[in-house]
């Protein structure tokens, strides 16, 4: 956790993406392409979504409050702090807090709450299996000497100052084409971190580069979990999301790459 927190200031692409989103929201960046057409459709009296049928509300929707989100998040943070940064305890406290609040407000029945809880646990199973398999793969690549081979090769082929930018762009490309996020993180760190140490590059900078690459690939890959979750929550198809974000992603990739190059030579 300490190393991850130390790498947050070097996660240049997520930072650029947040800044671009804010500038777009406040009108400092123009709306282009698919996004512009959507705004024009709404201003002309059309539906928010291209398919108006997807906008119909269901009987499950009920009025709620922002405090139903804020208070459980506070319980999560308090639980982590009180029990020496133990996120599991924080999550349990948040779940208990949600149970009391939601059932007390009659937003959900007790049986429905536990059904939702169990569905959430089962939904995490594929991720747990993936993480388990990635550790096996990481161990196999280590035993085969793959990590040492790639480290030696890239240490001669890539200048130290370009290592963070190389990690960022290569991880983002692999993530985009393979849609492999958790696996790639586990495999990428044993490759790039030893290189950073041997080349004298700040390891936190390389961690930020790898996480930035994963974020970029996840944001643009048509079949990533992030895209599917947004599609399920908004009704916007995967291909439409890609066409909307593509121009703005490029606006974030360029400054992020330049920042990684500059930081690589400076640090």
In short:
Helix content is 76%, strand content 0%. The protein is mostly helical and 267 residues long. Helix 7 crosses helix 9.
What this model shows, in words?
The protein is mainly alpha-helical. It is globular, with a radius of gyration of 22 Å. The longest helix is centred in the middle third of the chain and has 35 residues.
Can you lay out the helices and strands and say which pair or pack?
Layout: H1 2-7, H2 12-25, H3 33-43, H4 67-82, H5 87-104, H6 110-144, H7 146-157, H8 163-178, H9 182-199, H10 203-220, H11 225-234, H12 238-266
Helix pairs in contact: 2-12, 4-5, 6-9, 7-9, 8-9, 8-10, 8-12, 9-10, 10-12
Descriptive labels:
12 helices, 267 residues, 0% strand, mainly alpha
User: What Rg do the Cα atoms give?
Assistant: 22 Å
Helix content bin: over 70%
- Overall pLDDT score: 83
Question: What is the general shape?
Answer: globular
Strand content: under 5%
What is the β-strand count? 0
Largest sheet: none
Number of helices: 12
Structural category is mainly alpha
The residue ranges in which pLDDT falls below 50 over 5 or more consecutive positions are: 53-59
